[in-house]
Amino acid sequence: MSSYYLTTPIYYVNDHPHIGHIYTTLVADTIARYRRLCGDEVYFLTGTDEHGQKIERAAAERGIPPIELADEVVSRYHSLWAELGISHDDFIRTTEERHTRGVEAIVARIAATGDFYVSRHEGWYCAACENYYTEKELLPGHRCPDHEIETELRSEENVFFRLSKYQDRLLEWYDSEPCPVAPPSRANEVRQFVAQGLRDLSVSRATVEWAIPFPAHEGHTIYVWLDALSNYITALGYDGDEVGDLYRSLWQGDGVRLHLVGKDILRFHAVYWPAFLMSAGLPLPTTVWAHGWWLRDAQKISKTVGNIVRPDDLMKSFGTDSLRYFVLREMVFGQDASFSDEAFIDRYNSDLANDLGNTTSRLVTLSRRAFGDCLPPRRGAGGALATAAATAIAEYRRTMDEFAFSRALEALWRLLSQTNQYLVAHEPWKKLKDPAASGEVAEVLWNAMEAVRVVANGLLPFLPEKAPQVLAALGVEPGGELSALEWGGLPTGAELPAVTPIFPRIDKKAYLADAGDAPPVGKPAKKPKRQKKEAAEKPEMIQIDQFFETQLRVAEVKAAEAVPKSKKLIKLTVDVGEDSERTVVAGIAGQYEPEALVGRQVVIVANLQPAKLMGVESNGMVLAAEADGAPILLRPEKPVPNGTRVK
Ligand code: ME8
Prior knowledge:
By secondary structure, the chain is an alpha/beta fold. The chain is built from 20 helices and 25 strands. The strands form seven sheets. A six-stranded parallel sheet has the order 3-2-1-11-12-7, with helices on both faces. Strands 16, 17, 18, 19, 22 and 25 form a six-stranded antiparallel sheet that branches. The chain has a four-stranded antiparallel sheet with strand order 5-4-6-8, with no helix packed on it. The site of ligand ME8 has 21 residues, from strand 1, helix 1, helix 7 and strand 11.
């Protein structure tokens, strides 16, 4: 068993987390979960970067001590990581004593090699990067090339680190096999930067108090990046000569030492950090992997730029696994990607609700119907679908090893689509009542469900909450090893639980609508105010049995009243036949008076999950045609008995 140590950046505590921080951490978590399935001894570290001017200033603006701000943001990180199912082994804070001790030990080792000297320093300082720039690196107006904010011209006496001394060793390191900086385009950038010549680096600050004091240099504190980067080994118990077991096995052993970072901080990880380690005579990371940026309006999503996407709304509305799925499917790892709510909902509806959720529930429904609430007995060796699964598994494993997460997910979705084609070719739903076809139905359903089981096992690193639910729907336990991906793991004839929706469809219009309360009809998700956008939606094709999963019935309105405090909603009491009445809430108040509705027949969706609208529980949805944004109610051409099925 080999060790696999992986880290995220430690995040600044000057503000609460946003989608960018979530992304890196989700990627790390997905890798950690995958490597555990591969049988590696995984150790996954994340944490927070709490010193420096940025934090000092943010706390001052709030009128609180920096540690109070840090405690507040750290608790947000802890709860967010718990909500997202992040499976980290440790969370380091740079204000912890174990960290401070380790940083002092690293600084002492660098000092012992003679790589520090004191000199006067003048440069353009960006407080957001905590970094000096030369004039030619800046944007017009002396603005920071990363944050685009104005920098300050500063002059101070600093301790310098002899970075220039490590230029050749760094270049040699980049040329080692396999290249320790990835992806290759980023390795080239770093190589070019270093090859141009390195200037020594100022590693102390005379003006920043919220930092670790620089040993032997009174009045100076340690540069926040030297402090922060050290977390990767202080968290393992690096403490000078007295190193702990974790450090020994994970940092000195021959396993993987992987730093995942955004491209904004590649230089710190692929130039400064290895140079510090070389100077201190300590082992280097095996890989620094820099991913791209999440953009909004073509700009990096960032606290400093102020165009952030907060995860809370999305997670509350659609569940954390859907966010995990979206970011890993949508971003080609290494490149930039754009975040939008629309893209999020489209992906959710087409991939999760339709391809994965509907395929699973259709198969379970068919199997329960044909085999007395059980899985079919196994027949045959799987044929073409087993071959397709073997191809998908091989592609999945190869791409997971390369961190090509979107391609790994594509491979699984290709198998889902092949499964659906296989079902369409065999049409088992037409043969359920034919005893002579029972063997064929068993074979087709078993194979299709086995393919979905394989997909769900492949999804375990991505969807730690939902993938086990898909497996449970198929009557199987999640596999703890990668071998669970092999064809043949579905039991034969085991009992199947009744179908419950795993990925309920999102009403995109309702979510995106800029309305105060609810959309005209239907079940709205709880939503923040948003821009109304009409997107040309491609219709998705469904099977006839999917349509029949929706029960449409004629109902008669027995009573109607406006919902208090709502401009749009009317509460209807409807009779759906056999003397059964229920409440349905409809967003039609702009077009209809409640009294005019009494006695009228309408068409409702009768098997919709109940939903609360403005505090009133709605048990169904009234159908209406939408003309110029206004709902026009449907009714049968002539009266029919209440409860009549519409198809
Ligand atoms: O830089 N897209 O912390 P930080 C993708 N404390 N990823 C993004 C992103 C975006 N728009 N915005 C942020 C720091 N990230 C230092 C790190 S490590 C020793 C010290 C992610 O809070 C990405 O991983 O600014 C980026 O590198 C990191 O958050 C920066 O987080």
